């Protein structure tokens, strides 16, 4: 699978998963906006289409929201200078439904009766449209197509007296996946949904409290990791310190297992596990379950690399960079004609002929979505002289769409939803194809197996078993079939 910032290899432009988004907030630091900018740099892999920062300087809020990468839009000193204050929150976004217009770029900000509030959201609300319709009947006017705006309206219409109670009442009405950071004149608030589907961590930078989607965002600024927020936990940061609340009924955690497979950065620690270590264990499990007589193991860079290392070590085969990635191709590269378009795969990847010519090659990738990119990668390796090409996938077959903040193709367009593994092997033209089992994936993350009665993770993209109600999506095949609702990511 191509990385989330990859230029599409074919007209099947979404032959990959798009990452969700990243959130970051800091409270009590003079250079707050600059720190948030650095944190968002570290979280750029979670969303590349737009970014925003809201700061507060003790008297007013300052808002900067731009379409594009952090490095392209928040590099000018004038932008950072406009974001004065000792507290700020930020967001980096990949849009799903609703488009990538500036009105949907987060954090979303509103002036309420008792002051301003900004909210940034990672995840997707599965009842946002239902709640929006109720609010609209009461006179609410929505200015974006983002489900995140629903949170602002719920806070605004709450009859509770203080912001803690109003925010609590609002999040209790939400369903789906959400990790939130919010900023008011006096507080920074963080909250995870009761199942803890999306990550959110707490950090400390010389006494300034930080909320971030991943620990890699703490590392870039030299902050100390304190802990993961617990599922269903809400933390409130003020000048007096930090308080923790649990506004939801306790539920068993259902953290997104695909964070370990692909979404999180390899150098992050997620729910107590180092992502790179987990991916190597995934590769080892893959080699045990799907052995193959071969000469070398080659990752599909960059996302397949850690699993390929684990596979090679377990199988006692040489690990080689048989495919080299070009990191300097822009997302907006124009392919003017068919002859150029057919070369698309080489914009990002090129076979290292010296390593693979005459060899039996095992290609390791993290997943197969539509299969068109895998098809082109395999052909490229064959054209470079590979004697055999075997593909091993470091996750189970992806058979269902995600409704929790990950932009996936419609179920009918997922290769594994309409083909057997043998048919998929024929389609991508490999000598053999093997996927990691769901049980093997659970073993790689430290479980003895999957509890089918009460799964330990959200694995709906593999199993089709969704851990929450899907009120807005009943009968829908994918988030994108509902043109009225945009993901909060």
UniProtKB/TrEMBL annotation:
Highest taxon above the source species: Bacteria
InterPro entries named among the record's database cross-references: GATase_2_dom (IPR017932), Ntn_hydrolases_N (IPR029055), PRTase-like (IPR029057), PRTase_dom (IPR000836), PurF (IPR005854), PurF_N (IPR035584)
Keyword presence, Metal-binding: yes
Cofactor(s) required for function per UniProt: Mg(2+); [4Fe-4S] cluster
Keywords, ordered alphabetically: 4Fe-4S, Glutamine amidotransferase, Glycosyltransferase, Iron, Iron-sulfur, Magnesium, Metal-binding, Purine biosynthesis, Transferase
Pfam families for the chain: GATase_7, Pribosyltran
GO BP terms: 'de novo' IMP biosynthetic process; purine nucleobase biosynthetic process
Catalytic center residues: 21 (nucleophile)
Catalytic activity, reaction form: 5-phospho-beta-D-ribosylamine + L-glutamate + diphosphate = 5-phospho-alpha-D-ribose 1-diphosphate + L-glutamine + H2O
GO molecular function per UniProt: 4 iron, 4 sulfur cluster binding; amidophosphoribosyltransferase activity; magnesium ion binding
Keyword Iron assigned: yes
Entry-linked HAMAP family: PurF
Family according to the record: In the C-terminal section; belongs to the purine/pyrimidine phosphoribosyltransferase family.
Protein name as annotated: Amidophosphoribosyltransferase
Gene: purF
